[in-house]
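Shall we go through a protein fold together, starting from nothing but its sequence? Label the sequence line and the structure token line clearly, so we can match residues to local backbone shapes. Would you write everything just below, so we can both look at the same thing?
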Amino acid sequence: MVQFSQRYWLLLGLMLAAFAANLWLRAPKLAARERFELRRLVPDLPGWRKEEPRLPEQTAQQLKADEILLCNYYDSQNRRVEFFVGYYEDQQFGAQVHSPLHCLPGAGWTILRNDKFPLPFEHMFGAASKLDINKKDEQQIVLYWFVSDGKVVQNEMDLKIRLMVNAFKRRVTSVYFYRVCVAYQENDTQAGLALLQEFLTALAPRVGNLNTQSAVKSSHAREPR
């Protein structure tokens, strides 16, 4: 009788698992949000001069992003802010975002400090990861964050968890990767932080409503199987 009971529950469990898997496979996957042109994201900012340098082909191949934007902005004192956005259409099956925590040391930079930086964007609530780095006589502050399914994700671990959950729920697995860099003089991090804040404040009206405007008409679309 005990052996029969065990077999019964095992068979019932297998049947339920098969039923759940069948429902999951038949469920329509949420289509990726309509991709906008990254170049439209950052028009000229008042008080800033913009340049769009060409990303080296080797670097672009290493990043494996589906779309890339790289801009240098200069303020009235000719101080430069580097702004980068990479779009990855499907993290479930495509390339993985290159984490600055790995690529910066690989490029010879030393990470001196790793903490948070609140983002001043009305429609993108959250914080960026802030890295203080140096290489020989160069010092920089690097901010980076991710946007997945319209939500700001601060770090790599949270991104992996969110993507796993979205993939299981058959939701969007595309990712936007943002990076902002400024150089500063030795022992003058406050000047670098002030420049970052000034730039992000100028950028906010352009990027703050990115995820509410870029794909509203397709955010509820379903892919046919």
Remarks:
- The first strand starts at residue 49 and ends at 51.
